[in-house]
Amino acid sequence: MRRTRRTAAYAVIVENDRILLPRFRAPGGTGVWIMPGGGVEHGEDPYDAVVRELSEETGYDVEVTALLGVVSRRFPAPRRGLRLPSDHHGLALIYEAKVTGGELRSEQDGSTDLAAWHDLDALPDLPTGDMVARSVRLWRERPATGHLG
Q1: What is the domain-level CATH number for residue 111?
Q2: Phi, psi for 63 (deg, rounded to 5)
Q3: Which of 10, 65, 93, 132 has its CB surrounded by the most CB atoms within 10 Å?
């Protein structure tokens, strides 16, 4: 069985009780709201990766203000609708950031098709990836270890 690992960096950006999320273009035309961020390129610092990804996906310039934690997920079996190898390990660094400039816009020719602000209270009613709930929990709880038990 082939094993792969992907390291990614994401940011929680909350202003006035609203969170910034891009929408992933899921197969079949249904969108899923995800955390802004993405894969860390070979040799790239995760800090730099999250700043780059935020600019690409949202149009905003951001300043990273804190490292909230790390989320480790393993996908040992193929998942319907995802192009993941049979045994995939995802390692995500979750940062907190704030907008410092730029203008909100949607990504062009990327994996997301819309970026928008959402009320934190509305998150349970939105179709979101599980990383959104984990990231918001890290942001709210701020565990000293950076790990959710």
Answers
A1: 3.90.79.10
A2: -120, 125
A3: 10
